[in-house]
Specification:
This protein is an alpha/beta fold. It has eleven helices and 13 strands. The chain has two domains: 7-34 and 294-382, no CATH class; 43-278, Aspartate Aminotransferase, domain 2. 30% of the residues lie in helices and 17% in strands. β2 (114-119), α6 and β3 form a beta-alpha-beta unit. The longest helix has 15 residues, at 67-81.
Length: 383
């Protein structure tokens, strides 16, 4: 008998993100594949992590999350969305939202169950369904609005449907599901006794007046929703791997068991820093705020010229007005190109002639005033 990998492992490929990142690094290209925010982590959060390490918070926390962080997560969700959350029975801290998703699926589905997935989708969802012995049923999001056909969605649900994965705001399209669209999904979940697993990692990164609505807040959905989130994007700490899921107690118990045998627990000192992050108001005295009215969704600066060079993911028909960045500076787009197939837009932002309220006055640097253009074919910036 020859040594061979499992059938499961042969049904999906290596992460496209990893491959594209290697190629971008090899050729000095702008990396559009990976969600690195282009702003630094807030100093208060970094200082909290340093204090926790210095205080010797270096041993295992409670497997399903330090109590302080679970309480902060529950309080923040209730404060923002008005839905009470029990930190003792409904919150599980994981090693990033990626682990939260696979832990939720392993805790929920059995062999032969079906999971509805909207496409295009974040690449983990398909392999996660396979690893969970579930069969994915795909429903297309159609450009330019990235909406779905309610009839197609209804046909995807059936007697074996166990869950539907909803990612809003969506990666990679930038789609923010409306309350009406979420209501259609919720009605099908109730009809077929299915669970909504919702990935809300981009909850604070919104454009053009879009409003994020957690599906758990809809009538009858709190008891059949697993809400997944994390620190990564909002606070620019993608490498810290601190995520969580909020679920009803009957599902939380199963998720915690699976999580324990997957990773045991997230890094203890970084959970302490997460407590500080989760209690931030919309704007702090240090000037930092989550990027809720502009800023980059999935950004990778291609040089040290951070103030004027950005790559932004958004829907292909999204207008680009004046943008206020997380640090208070203001930019205007000077060139926009779009791809209806990919849903990506690239632009070269230049400093505004207006003086933002929170920005120091003064003229732009020579490097910021230079006119540049984005050449998609060669994937480099050129003068």
């Amino acid at each position: 008998m020859s040594v061979r990998p499992s059938d499961k492992a042969s049904r999906f490929t290596e992460s496209v993100i990893r491959e594209m990142t290697r190629l971008a690094n090899l050729h000095g290209a702008v990396n559009l594949s990976q969600g690195f925010p282009d702003f630094p982590a807030p100093e208060a959060v970094k200082e909290a992590a340093r204090r926790a390490v210095a205080a010797d918070v270096n041993q295992y926390a409670i497997t399903w999350g330090a109590r302080g962080l679970r309480e902060a997560i529950a309080a923040k969700f209730t404060r923002l969305y008005g839905l009470p959350v029990d930190p003792e029975r409904e919150v599980t801290v994981t090693c990033g939202s990626t682990e939260a998703m696979i832990a939720a699926l392993l805790a929920l589905v059995d062999a032969g169950d079906e999971v509805v997935v909207f496409e295009p989708f974040y690449e983990n969802y398909g392999p996660d369904a396979i690893l969970s012995d579930a069969s994915p049923r795909f429903v297309k999001l159609r450009p330019p609005e990235w909406s779905f056909d309610p009839g197609e969605l209804e046909r995807a649900f059936g007697p074996r449907t166990r869950a539907v994965i909803v990612n809003t705001p969506n990666n990679p399209t930038g789609k923010v599901f409306s309350r009406e669209e979420l209501g259609t999904i919720a009605a099908l979940c109730r009809k077929h006794d299915a669970v909504a697993i919702t990935d809300e990692i981009y909850e604070h990164i919104l454009y053009d007046g879009a409003v994020h609505v957690p599906i758990a807040t809809l009538p009858g959905m709190a008891e059949r929703t697993i809400t997944i989130n994390g620190l990564s994007k909002t606070y620019s700490v993608t490498g810290w791997r601190v995520g969580w899921c909020i679920a009803p107690p009957v599902l939380t118990g199963a998720i915690r068991k699976v999580h324990d045998f997957l990773t045991v627990g997230a890094a203890a000192p970084l959970q302490e820093a997460g407590v500080v992050a989760s209690t931030f108001p919309p704007r702090t005295t240090s000037g930092w705020r989550p990027p809720t009215r502009g800023g980059a969704t999935a950004c990778s600066p291609c040089s040290s010229d951070r103030a004027s060079r950005r790559i932004v993911r958004a829907g292909p028909t999204t207008p680009w007005p004046r943008s206020t960045r997380w640090d208070g500076t203001t930019t205007w787009p000077s060139r926009v190109t779009s791809s209806r197939r990919s849903g990506w837009r690239w632009y070269r932002a230049r400093p505004s002639t207006r003086t933002p309220r929170t920005a120091a006055s003064g003229s732009a640097s020579p490097s910021a005033r230079r006119t540049k253009r984005w050449t998609k074919r060669s994937a480099v910036w050129r003068d």
